[in-house]
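User: Hi! I'm working on a homework problem where we have to compare a predicted structure to a textbook description. Could you give me the structure for the chain below?
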Amino acid sequence: MNVDAMIESIRNHPEFGKVGMILTHTGIVRGFSRNGRRVSGIDITADAVTLDQVVQKHRQMSGIIEIQVALTKKMRLLPGDWIMTVAVAGDIRENVLGAMASIIDAIKQEVTRKTEHYA
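Assistant: Happy to help. Predicted structure tokens:
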């Protein structure tokens, strides 16, 4: 999950001249769950076909030029490990921010399944 490589790939996109913003997101395993319990690790699985569909759908959003997503290949992750990196490039801030929020939610709800383990 190399953010610099993702951005460089976007810079080479044939429509890069339309890009006014590239926003990146890196999801990391937290040491504590949303309810405050200490997390010792998580198991995560991802559906590659659904991920491709989600990315293609979000590339069609208004003002979006390119989206790149990298998900971890590991099944067992520890606090501090990277889960995913997402890069969204588009014309204006409002379009990019909206697409980023939407694709992160879609990945979490439709693509990945997560089981937390507690300390």
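For your comparison, note the following. The chain has one domain: 3-118. The chain has a mean pLDDT of 97. Good luck with the assignment!
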